[in-house]
Design a protein that fits this description.
With about 260 residues, the protein is an alpha/beta fold. Helices cover about 25% and strands about 25% of the residues. It has helices at about 15-25, 65-80, 105-115, 130-150, 215-220, 235-240; strands at about 1-5, 30-35, 55, 60-65, 85-90, 120-125, 155-165, 170-175, 180, 185-190, 195-200, 205, 220-230. β6 (about 120-125), α4 and β7 (about 155-165) form a beta-alpha-beta unit. The structure holds manganese (II) ion.
Length: about 260
């Protein structure tokens, strides 16, 4: 087994270190991770600047790019063979509900899925990051990795795993929940009397919906959500067909003279 690990908290993050220790029981672990914190960069890919990969330790590479860059570089450049599994995490903080679209952690698993490599993201849904919490999360990741190896993932599917605070009481299969973004932007005044704004500094709520990632984690369970990359809303497609949307006759344009 060849397992590629990455994250968005940077190569020095304890979550990545603990994950690597635990997962190395499954096979050879190669880490390709951002050289600094890159949280909330989403699925950003570096197209207009060179990327450098520095040897950080044996089988550990630090890249001056995004989590997506790391997976791409790992699969296509640094590893000599395609890995059997990509794991992104353990993220410092939850990645649930609408937040997934911002997450660099989740995007790294997305990138692996695009490359046809089985993947999952794992996040510690806490604000307190002691070693024990990461150890529990790493054990969860180990179980998930073993299960993926046993059953193999459905096509174009990856898993988003969130681990609750404390020892988890079980695993729940969930759907993506819904955030309440009220209070997402905090306005303050700087020492010179000018206003400034801070995004994501407040504690945000979520809708209490059955079967969601938020509810599973709140009840002390590990949340496992299967995700896919096809963003098409198929139910809406049927409704839109009834709109009879077409271009109609175009009027004369400037170039027509
Ligand atoms: Mn992060």
């Amino acid at each position: 087994m060849l397992i590629l690990l990455t994250n968005d908290d940077g190569i020095q993050s304890p979550g990545l270190q603990v994950l690597a220790e635990q997962i190395s029981r499954l096979g050879r672990v190669v880490v390709v991770a951002p050289d600094r914190e890159r949280s909330a960069v989403g699925h950003a890919l570096t197209l207009h600047a060179p990327l450098r990969a520095q040897v950080y330790a044996d089988d550990w590479w630090a890249v001056d790019g995004t989590p997506t860059d790391c997976v791409s570089l790992g699969i296509h450049g640094l590893l000599k063979t395609v890995p059997d599994l990509v794991i992104s995490g353990i993220n410092k903080g939850a990645n649930m509900g609408d937040d997934l679209t911002y997450s660099g952690t989740v995007a790294a698993a997305m990138e692996a899925t695009l490359m046809g490599v089985p993947a999952f993201a794992v996040s510690l849904a806490s604000t307190d990051f002691d070693r024990q919490a990461f150890v529990w999360s790493a054990r969860v990741a180990m179980r998930v990795a073993e299960t993926i190896c046993e059953h193999s993932l459905p096509a174009d599917t990856f898993l988003n795993v969130n681990v609750p605070v404390g020892e988890p009481s079980g695993i729940q299969l969930t759907r993506q929940g819904k955030r309440i973004y009220e209070g997402a932007v905090i306005q303050k005044r700087d020492p010179r009397g000018n206003d400034y704004y801070w995004i994501g500094a407040g504690e945000l709520g979520f809708h209490d919906l059955d079967g969601t990632d938020f509810n599973a984690v709140q009840s002390g369970h590990v949340s496992v959500t299967p995700l896919h990359l096809d963003l098409t809303n198929y139910a809406a497609l049927d409704r839109l067909r009834q709109w009879d949307m077409d271009l109609g006759p175009f009027g004369p344009t400037e170039s027509d003279g």
